Fold this protein.
Amino acid sequence: MNQDYSRSSRWRAFCSLLSIALLATTVLGWQQQAAIPVAAPALSAPEREAAAKLRVETIREVATDLSAPEMQGRGTAQPGGDKAAAYLAERFKKIGLKPLGTNGTYYQPVKFREITFLPETSFVVGNEPLKLGPDFAVTQPLSGDKSVSGGLVFVAYGLTSSTPKRDDLAGLNLNGKIVVMLQGPPAIVNKESWRKARVQFDILRYLVSQGVAAIVFVNHGREQHGYKITADYSTRRQLEPEDSEEMPSFLPPFLNVSDEAAEKLFSASGISRAEALAKADADGFKPIDLKQTAKITVRLKKNKGVGNNVVGLLEGSDPNLKAEAVVYSAHYDAYGIADNRIYHGAADNALGVGEMLAVAEALAATTTKPKRSFIFMAVTGEEYGGHGSDHWVQHPTWKIKQVAANLNFDGMGTEVYGPVKVLVAFGGEHSNLGESLRTVADALDLKVIPDPMPEEKAFYRSDHYFFVKKGIPALMLLGAPEGEIKSWVDRMKQWEKTDYHQPTDVVRSDWNWEGPKTMATVGLILGLRVANQDEMPKWLTSSPFNRERGTNQPPPPEP
């Protein structure tokens, strides 16, 4: 699962806003359409047969193989990623899936543009150089090579408003200045209101329009992510589709600095960083001249690379319905090798790929073949913004209007905490797939609960969302053990702090493999029911995603 702040698409949206005179946001709300209670049927004989053929050994073997050191972290457009794709293609072939990539192969190539920072990238404050990574990070958007200099000025939040009444830019000529600022909102402003109104975009758009030389963010401690995490992601190699539009050259450099480096920005001003932060949240803030200049140099190295989606087909049995397909997806990429460290990506998402392959193996072995076809897709580039799945829905190897649904395996590994008794269905409130899942859960004596972490916005952060944007009902499944929800949520959040997208995400000896087997079984039975029902899944009329399959309309704003 990717981090929302690592996705360049968000900054592309920002760039488009720069040319808009007035930013208007419409916030759409919805409620889940009331479902008519339906008695949950027990598993049918074909479903029981398929479930019996699902092998936990397959899940364990695939998860272990993909996260092994030899796979070098399965980096997109890196040798480890190519090795993982070949491994998966061979597994598909052994299972008996037909190639559904390009040119009669299992592979669908996706071309990428790789961006890394050259050693010449620098930030000098006065006469003191700061270090890339420990002291500063160049963040999105990356607008190309830049060399700028200018006087430093602290503008608090850069906010000019009547509510709250303040003018952080009073009397300033911003042209050529290096603006030092805080990311909003101020302490007295509601975070959700600030986010939904996209105030930060408005502020940055205005600063750019006034010709600032650069924007440097310092931390106040209320940010969603601290400097260490921001710098970790920002200094890694960046990937974007080769055919994507490059960032406009008029954009200035955007930087984040550590708290220690921020002290150096204020060192000649006569006030400390802490005093400046206190002034920023007090009434009557006025811009502060930091009384020194800085020089910023950004030098980028750009290469081209290719990753591969790995796609296989299990053909359905019905002469008519086999033209429609249920797509299973799981991303196999992790962050590869960086700074001589391997990002193994075991829970995220070698485990999900293992679950998907176990489903494929079981379905291929059943004697009663489902009516619709099944597509199994191991996608690349998810960690950099879902580029592999986005590429497939834009350049599908199956008629997009005949994709019945997408079932996505991706998560945080909560299913290994113990036997799975609880399910979360991201996207279940938007289509009748949600009610179908409930009948499966009832038949397996499982409980479906609402998203316990809505603030994480997981629905928008994995491969299923690109199917949703293309008008295809989709679900991403998460499983957890019984007991207090808070207990496993707390465990997961601790894992996020220590292992998420880090080299320490490895297969562990205390993993309970019955949990992943249950998750694969849920996906298997749900897929069978979708494949055998008379009609393809439908959007609920209450959903803002309710549209025809295959359409390319922009999605509604995230709530």
Notes: The chain has 15 helices and 22 strands. The chain has two domains: 44-113+304-532, 119-298.
